[in-house]
Amino acid sequence: MFSSQQQLKMPGKMVVTFGASNILWMVFAVSQAFKMEIFPEHRVVAQIGDVISLTCSTTGCESPSFSWRTQIDSPLNGKVRNEGTKSTLTMDPVSFNNEHAYVCTATCGSMKLEKGIQVEIYSFPKDPEMHLSGPLELKKPVTVTCLVPDVYPFDRLEINLLKGNDLLKSKEFLEPMDRKSLETKSLEATLIPDQEDIGKALVCRAKLNIEEIDFEPKERETTKKLQVYISPKNTVIFVNPYTRLQEGGSVTMTCSSEGLPAPQIFWSKKLDNGNLQLLSGNATLTLIAMRIEDSGIYVCEGVNQVGKNGTEVELIVEEKPFIVEISPGPQVIAQIGDSVVLTCGVTGCESPSFSWRTQIDSPLSGQVKTEGTKSTLTLSPVSFENEHSYLCTVTCGRKKLEKRISVDLYSFPRDPEIEMSGLLVSGNPVTVSCEVPNVYPSDGLEIELFKGESLIESKTFLEDMDKKSLETKSLEMTFIPTTEDTGKVLVCLAQLHIGEMEFEPKQRQSTQALYVNVAPRDTAILVSPSSILEEGSSVNMTCSSNGLPAPKILWSRQLNNGHLQPLSENSTLTLTSTKMEDSGIYVCEGINQAGISRKEVELIIQGRENNKDYFSPELLVLYCASSLIIPAIGMIIYFARRANMKGSYSLVEAQKSKV
User: Fold this and answer.
1) 123-127-133 Cα angle (round to 5)
2) Span 514-566, pLDDT tens digits
3) pTM exceeding the 0.70 threshold for the entire prediction
4) Which CATH number characterizes residue 453's domain?
5) Which domain holds residue 234?
6) Is 605 in contact with 578 (CB distance < 8 Å)?
7) At 6, which helix (H) or strand (E)?
8) 421 and 385, same structural domain?
């Protein structure tokens, strides 16, 4: 395209060749003060994905024309916008296809100027990512991966991994690049942590070493503070007083375990099937009032983030020879407010002594009565403070035996209460509330709402209860009643699901019959004979309106101030011997408890045209006017005749001659 005789080296490695004719053209352009500038000058550096604009502007020419091209005539991959003496090439977003030398050509008549600019690209968008193959456990190898995403050109990338101020590993990526692409590069190193590493910083530092390009940042890093763990070990159990106990005795077991961070202690009991039943999350486990079934293997485990270590101990609880029975059984189900009597009886001992207490040593809140080989604990009325496991302790000589009974409470005293947010009106939404008062435990409650035999809403209350209390729970739903609902029954069914308890009733319900109102509508007025009447006539205005219940009819007359004057509550309003002042707007309203429907009619009373037997003011005015007009007409005729005789007529002259 260009002659090889002349070459001009452009910034950014761009070479433009000019022929002899082009040189003469440039000299001519300079002589005419036609100049051209390009911004940025020479070279621009852009990160892949960014937006850049190249601007070409001229002076000395009012209407230049512009064109853009790449040095190697590849596609522009950008949008050109020309405005007056300025042209802009925008690349959004910048990609590999934009890494070229670009030439802007400006033409003004026969004059032409060209300038070039080099676009260079790179990609270094994110800080490195650091990944560990697992938790840092003391003396156990772990792989550290330092990953740098979306780098270009990656052959200038350097990754360094440091622990504190010590360089663990460094890596450069000097292999040739087969093609232009965004590459994710990584460095891997093996770390064996020790106690001195606790609190040190692990640093992944990435550098993009392109000195000839000015961009920021050229270095990125990610830091992670080291947390070194030590798996639990040396777990031991201390038992006080002994591992062999008599029924009714108590034992305290304390467990300890070493590790970093300090292990949490968990106590469990090994079941017959080999599974563990969790008992406590405290280091000390105290068992009181031991029973035969409390015998078994108890396991202590120290647990932290990287492991666990356990040990176990066997407890043996020996049976006493006499027998203690407690009634009504191992469990009593009582409704709050009722009375409960717990009876402890002994066989095999003639003179036993009794004592009652709760499993957690809280106050009894009851009355104890002992007679011979029986002892009773009366709880009346039962309240939340009575919901415990109670222990009856029987001492016979040197032997002691305990029996336990659990008092579990519930409250389900009344049927649900159904409430409506308002009157049932066809087509109008109404909210139904089904409320169940004083329920316990409320997390076992289910409320269902039926319309007829159809379930329309249900709700369960499965949330955890923070405290023991009587709760009033409710279900609310909104529905739009129709006339078809009239006669149906709304049923609110409440069920208390406490499977392990035997009590009655476990469900309660309330019903409410539905009666759906229909607001007044289709209100109409029939006027007989007509709404336009002559004065003295009679008229019947009959109003009708549809609704449920049947609307009440109210007739009113609209006054000049807009207010309504009540007239009648009959469906037909009759006006006899009407007068003109009876004219006006009459209003009929159909009213029931569901609403109001209104209809208006205008009544016009006109005066009679014939058979008037009175002297009106209008007739008097007409009479007076005629008495003046007749003489005036005669005078006009008189003067007109005189004017005809003289050949002219002047009212002024006529007046003068008369005078």
Assistant:
1) 120
2) 999 999 999 999 999 999 999 999 999 999 999 999 999 999 999 989 899 99
3) no
4) 2.60.40.10
5) 230-318
6) yes
7) strand 6-10
8) no
